[in-house]
Specification:
The protein is mainly α. 58% of the residues lie in helices and 0% in strands.
Length: 395
């Protein structure tokens, strides 16, 4: 358990939470943030992550990351960073576990295809979809739809990548579901940065996927250890491990190098974040939200190394012919499913069919997107096989 003496004044405290949209009695045994975390873990959307792609489609091997294992890795890193920085571990873990709930089947390939089909209806974005999941689409409770999370958890889910409105936002348009929620329900202050816990969850996501993509890429044979040696920081770490353990097998070598690289990234974040905190001197989480930049960050020096690593992974992994071929195949599965349900809404399950109606409107298109986004890889394949009598999986 986190030591209360180590909590800094700029941490988010559950006893100071701004509460939930629907008031609920407080738990005698868990804080508000612990309850939020548990609701995420017990959600249907979280269980589905087990069979949703990270990079490789689920049937390509049992040892590659899925959205579920990725989310668990992000949560572990987030807890470690939060403990060292003296902010709330439970809130950081909650946001980390929730951050990918809105992902489609087939990873970013599925998201790209669904966005393409939804362009006439304001498009599709997995971050907005995550917000829809936790505020609307989960239907497990008698008193409300969604998970009725605390204000701080919702803020972190909405803004973990930074402000989504105003001059500091990277987005041109505020996602509709967030805009409507803040207009009609609770103001999440979309133009400001979130608390440190959400910022920690976001950078933990970067640390996790950069490192597990190295591991999975080598495991899949898309590139070799030798191909990494010219990369700054990454190459130095792999060379150091090779020199120290000249007779170790490749699996152990890669694991040891990736372990050290994770540690290097965490150390860099802690040093840079410590520098920014010392400069900003926030005395409360309100001060954190008022900053003109994120306080949790990599150093400028490591950002350059990370940029080169991402460029390498983009060229050698995400654009590898094997991955590109599967991407195009699964994108067509999503396109076909969307087109079919748009033309034949009677093929949707009962709830979705009744809500969608008989004509394709913006509302019904969003419901179809909700339904497809909730599918796992294998369920999407199975639906596609039943509808079109086509087998895209075993090629």
């Amino acid at each position: 358990m986190q030591n209360s003496d180590s909590i800094r004044p700029y941490a988010s405290l559950p006893e100071n939470s701004r509460g939930r949209l629907l008031k609920e009695p407080e738990s005698k045994n868990r804080t508000a943030f612990q309850r939020d975390r548990d609701r995420i873990i017990h959600s249907v959307a979280f269980r589905r992550l087990q069979y949703k792609t990270q990079v490789f489609v689920y049937h390509e091997g049992d040892h590659f990351r899925t959205r579920l294992t990725h989310s668990l890795e992000v949560a572990q890193i987030a807890r470690s960073l939060s403990r060292t920085l003296g902010v709330n571990e439970d809130l950081a873990e909650t946001i980390a576990l929730a951050h990918d709930l809105g992902h489609t089947p087939f990873g970013h390939a599925g998201e790209d295809a669904l966005h393409e089909m939804m362009l006439p209806f304001d498009g599709f974005d997995h971050n907005e979809q995550t917000f829809r999941v936790v505020t609307q689409l989960e239907r497990r409770y008698a008193d409300f739809n969604g998970l009725n999370l605390s204000w701080e958890s919702l803020e972190g889910i909405a803004k973990h990548n930074g402000p989504v409105a105003g001059p500091l936002s990277k987005e041109a348009i505020v996602p509709e579901s967030m805009r409507k929620y803040c207009t009609n329900a609770i103001d999440l202050e979309l133009a400001s940065f979130a608390g440190l816990e959400a910022q920690i969850a976001a950078i933990s996501d970067d640390i996790a996927y950069n490192n597990h993509d190295i591991d999975d890429g080598i495991r899949a044979g898309l590139f070799k250890v030798g191909d990494l040696l010219d990369l700054p920081v990454v190459g130095d770490i792999f060379r150091e491990v090779e020199q120290r353990y000249p007779n170790v097998g490749q699996e152990s070598l890669v694991h040891e190098a990736v372990r050290r690289l994770v540690d290097h990234m965490i150390s860099d974040v802690l040093a840079e974040t410590g520098r920014r905190l010392e400069q900003a001197m926030p005395q409360s989480v309100i001060d954190v939200r008022a900053q003109p930049q994120a306080l949790v960050a990599f150093s400028d020096q490591f950002k350059l190394a990370e940029k080169e690593l991402r460029a390498f992974l983009f060229g050698r992994m995400y654009r590898h012919e094997k991955v590109k071929e599967m991407r195009e195949r699964v994108k067509q599965v999503v396109r076909n499913l969307f087109s079919h349900y748009s033309e034949h809404p009677e093929g949707l399950p009962d709830y979705w069919r009744l809500e969608a109606g008989t004509k394709l409107t913006k509302r019904s298109a969003r419901l179809i997107a909700d339904y497809i986004a909730g599918m796992t890889d294998r369920y999407a394949f199975e639906q596609h096989r039943q509808i079109f009598n086509l087998d895209f999986e075993i090629k």
